[in-house]
Amino acid sequence: EVQLVESGGGLVQAGGSLRLSCVVSGTTFDVYNIAWFRQAPAKERQGVSRISMSDGATYYSEAVKGRFTISRDNAKNTVFLQMNSLKPEDTAVYYCNTVVFWGRGTQVTVSS
């Protein structure tokens, strides 16, 4: 069974940084894309970033491009999301995803 466990969320002031981690287990790590989504209260879940575990190709939404960086550590089956210059509108629960599997999420709150 594929499991994804997120960590690293918290409360930070606007302009601050956080680093999220997603540990993936139960699958061959390097054959899938791993993605980060987020969901703010009363809003739909939206894609934030994605990385190919085979070649490292990345994707970022326009809302986070230039501020967030996705990376991977294949040896640790872990994907990271470095979030800099955080804004109050980045406040959401952040979820890790691969194929049809989801983690439980980690809360990120950015105060103004």
Summarize the structure in words.
- It is a single chain.
- The protein is an all-beta fold.
- It has no helices and 11 strands.
What's the short version?
The chain is built from no helices and 11 strands. By secondary structure, the chain is mainly β.
Helix/strand class? mainly beta
The pLDDT mean sits at 94
Q: Indicate the proportion of strand residues.
A: over 45%
Distance between the termini: 40 Å
Total helical elements:
0
Encode the helix/strand succession as letters.
Answer: EEEEEEEEEEE
- Poorly predicted ranges (pLDDT <50, ≥5 residues)? none
Task: Give the overall silhouette.
Answer: globular
Largest sheet: 7 strands, mixed
Helix content range: under 10%
Number of strands: 11
Topology overview:
Layout: E1 3-7, E2 10-13, E3 18-25, E4 33-39, E5 46-52, E6 58-60, E7 68-73, E8 78-83, E9 92-98, E10 101-102, E11 106-111
Parallel strand pairs: 2-11
Antiparallel strand pairs: 1-3, 3-8, 4-5, 4-9, 5-6, 7-8, 9-10, 9-11
Identify the notable features of this structure and list them briefly.
112 residues; mainly beta; 7-stranded mixed sheet; 4-stranded antiparallel sheet; 11 strands; globular
